[in-house]
Amino acid sequence: MQYEPELCHSCGSGLAGAVEVGREQRQVFDLPELALEVTEHQLIARRWPD
Ligand SMILES: [Zn+2]
To answer: Tens digits of per-residue pLDDT, 3-16?
Structure first.
């Protein structure tokens, strides 16, 4: 993303086409949304009848 001023802060004239005199860069890091994942495990007991 790039953001630019449209107007001069001093005189208010448009800045389209004016010389670029500076640029700052910053990065924003976002984590993807977390989602729960459920896995059911079943341990079955068996025996022969007495
Ligand atoms: Zn100006």
So the answer is: 999 999 999 999 99
CB 15 within 8 A of CB 6: yes
Q: How far is CA 11 from the centre of its chain?
A: 36
Beta bridge partners of residue 14, listed in sequence order: 7
3-class state of residue 7 by DSSP? strand
CA pair distance 13, 38, nearest whole angstrom:
59
Sign of the Cα torsion 10, 11, 16, 20 reads negative
- Residue 23 Cα to ligand 1 midpoint, Å, equals 18
